[in-house]
Write a structure and sequence with these properties.
alpha+beta; 11 strands; globular; single-stranded DNA binding
Length: 497
Amino acid sequence: MVIYLCKCINKGVSMTKQKNKNISKKQQDYFDKLTQDSANAVAAYIESGNKVKFEKYTVDTQIFGIAQNASGRKYNGNNALNLTLAQLNNQYAYNVYMTKKQIQEEIIEPLKLDQDKIEKIKLDYPKFNPDFWIPKGSKFDIASFSKFKFYDKDSNEIFNKEKIKELQNLDDLTLKVKGFEKRFAGKQNYQVFNISQIHHLMTNDTIKALSRKHKDIMNYEKARKGDVMPEEGINLKYKLIKATHRQAMIVEQGISVNQVEKAPAFFAPSDFSINVPKNNKYKSDYHALSTETHELQHSIGFKTGRDLSGMSGSAAYSKEESTTELATMVIFAYYNIKGESLQSESYISGWVKDNPQEVMKCVSASSKGVKDFLDNVSNYKNKLDYVNDLDEQCLLSFNTDIKTISDDFEEFKQFVDSPIVGYKNNEHGTVFVVEKGDVELEKELSLILKDKLSEYSIKTQKQEEKDLLELEPVSLDIEDKKLEVKKTKESQRKLKY
């Protein structure tokens, strides 16, 4: 699947034939195909709602996350959404991508010095040649970046590279005031490969070097050796994220959250509120997090002017639901959680396939929705004096300690299975934040709780440092690759050298 990332839509540039009179029919056909491929990818994700299963924690969920380049830089905007979607639909083992140039320099050149590794590869691929490492028929994805040129408004002069470096840090308004103008100058597209496709070419040293830049790779290598986070810890993580999202949107956007017994989850623009089932009504903590994040994303759409007026079955409804599902998927990826569409209406995926141009607008709108949502969360966290950053194992250990302490202190029972988002200090003492809101304790009890949080925060930090120091990645050989990188029937292709 080739995915074309249409940032140009944000600039008001459409890919229709009417607005692209200067390009050839061949180019237009190519753009149309890429756009349709993108729509099909979105449809494939939404169709997963028909068979969603809330399975136990697996290695797959531990290695999922926002798509990033092997350099350590995370993709953003439409690139992040499309490459994250590519990982989901193709079931790639990693969320890391490399360009052909990076693969040549960081994978192939070191490999040429390891003749033993080359001979091992040739046992499975007799025709393998390091100078022609891309397998015949390999599929790739596209990372697309907008190019800009800077002009002097009076002389229309294009500035040199040194001047551009200075100007790139200025916003558009400041540029205009200073007499400069930034103009869109086309797009630069790069073919990128998921490292799952070339893992069998990596030496252990290469894997270790990548692991130091990408915690996800390190976690995957640990998981392959049986070091998987406990399910109870993962469920606490889901609860913590849901509580953080809820409190952030209440404080930053003023939304109301109503928990009800039977009514379905929905967003009500009339009083800017969401109705969601009580926690014990969900199939799982994952389901609860996904549902509430979805409804909160509708509220972001309302604030930013998306059309929420469509009734079920309409094009407007399909467009908004598609936008929200994509945004929820990327928000999950931000937390290294594998997203699964909760949509079950088959007509939505049908609308997506039939309206590829509109889907590209959904992609752009969802990228904005993700940014606005995470900005709200970040702004909220900045107002706290402590933000809970415990990993899954420490969340579980902390919860166990709280259960024990609550035997002696009744006030602590409210924190059992209800992770603390963080706390803030004021002139009266300390206020702890949980899903239901703010909780105040007596000074002595506050100190006990703060000391416990500090203790486990240090443990989390030390564990991450220890993992990096002791990392001894397991090479993924060809047989393992076939088991770990599961391909769908549509995308499965034999590698032929």
